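Protein fold
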Amino acid sequence: MSEAANKERTTKQSWAVPGSSHDRIIRIAKIALPSAVGVLIAILALAPLEKNGDVSFILDKTKVASAPEAMRVDTARYTGEDNQGRPFAILAQSAIQRNSNVPIVDISGMMARLALNDGPGTVVANRARYNLNTQQAAVIGPVHATGPDGYDLATSNVTLDLKQKQITGSDGVQGQMRLGQFTAGQLQADLDSHTVNLNGGVRLKIEQGAVR
């Protein structure tokens, strides 16, 4: 064996001898490394709390309030009771409450299910603005109401009062009922009693045989 090989072998043997510098390094590492890890974890945990740091988890409420939509729900459902304690429900394909301080919900694809005196009724509309406090829906565009015994009313741009079970319109209405087609300045329809009152420039085209 060459002299260089003998020196290398001797060096390795001395490194492996108990109590050598290798053993001292291992003992120090066993203490130093866990301590270093603990210090690093503490620094990371306390860094966000440092007053002069650049990291903060506090939300500015003024920034949150400026969000474009406070609430957006797909396939929403709103329920309540009328003045007689009967349940009603509004189903919507989508609902957006643009400001959490204003109880107005913009609804698309609305269908209201109502419990009437002589059976269930439905009101269908493409768009509406539902007031969570008054439980009234201001329908934008056409609305179609149906009820028991073939009751059918189609009109547009009206307000649906879910507590009173009434549809009202005061800015010019037009539509169709079993009697025929109509136009008027004002409309009040009672869904429970199946009556429709028209006022102001009323025009009614009665369909032949509709009153039989």
Observations:
- The first strand starts at residue 71 and ends at 81.
